[in-house]
Amino acid sequence: MTRNQSITLYYSPQTRATGAHILLEELGVPYHLHVLNMKAGEQRQPAYLAINPLGKVPAVRVGETLVTEQGAIYLYLADLFPEAGLAPALTDPDRGAYLRWLFIYGSCFEPAVVDRYMKREPGSLNETPYASYESLIDMLEEALKTGPYLLGERFTAADLLWGVALQWTTMFGLVEARPAFQAYMERIGNRASVQKVSAEDAAMAAEHEAAAARLKAS
Q: Helices 95-104 and 70-80, interaxial angle, to 10°?
């Protein structure tokens, strides 16, 4: 990346984009938030659908490069700024486990949690991308029991992805708050980047709620 390339994060508070915002803070690079009020439906307007036709956040633009999907954004940004030390290098033995955890999240964890929340009858162990919800959650617990992070003593961008995800899914009762998860969330939640973005998100979400109410009343 040339240092004159700007970074824009397409964003809405207290969404899946929150983790990408935290990641940018951890990377310590300048960026711009293009904020969408999802309570007012701005993510479904043509201007943003031209960025992501699915109407989902986050999306990030770096110069002429546009990236959507959480795992891809974490992978791209952490690799783009190797000096931050949040991604094992291509030749690092930890690279495989790092990639595994980045992609298990979107490929397995979210489908498993949503299926369970929607009370969908899961397919056989061979038909679902996650085998079973129980086996997936048990596997995550085992990894975090030996922690303190997914790669042992090594903190990476994958921990930001999972730390934020567990915070939200346990908060709403979608995932059981097992002791290993609680300890992990506390470690991630104590980071200055997380506390900064969480406070900003709370204020921004309140503003969006008020703006949406005014729009509805008009």
A: 150
For residue 21, what are its two tokens?
């915002």
Q: What is the CA radius of gyration of the chain?
A: 18
pTM value is 0.92
- CA-to-CA distance for 55 and 149, rounded, in angstroms? 32
Torsion sign across C-alpha atoms 190, 180, 157, 170: negative
CA distance 82 to 168: 28
Distance in angstroms (rounded) separating the CA atoms of residues 211 and 203: 12
Query: CB–CB of 186/146 below 8 Å?
Result: no
Report DSSP letters for 146-194, one per residue: S-SBTBBTB--HHHHHHHHHHHHHHHTTSS---HHHHHHHHHHHTSHHH
CA atoms of 63 and 5, how far apart (whole Å): 5
Question: Which ranges in the chain belong to alpha helices (H)?
Answer: 17-27, 46-49, 70-80, 95-104, 110-117, 133-145, 157-171, 179-189, 192-217
Per-residue tokens: 133: 């919800």
Q: With b meaning 16 or more CB within 10 Å and e meaning fewer, what string describes 64-86? A: eeebbbbbebbbebbebbeeeeb
pLDDT in tens, 105-151: 999 999 999 999 999 988 888 888 899 999 999 999 999 998 899 99
Sign of CA dihedral 144, 158, 120, 12: positive
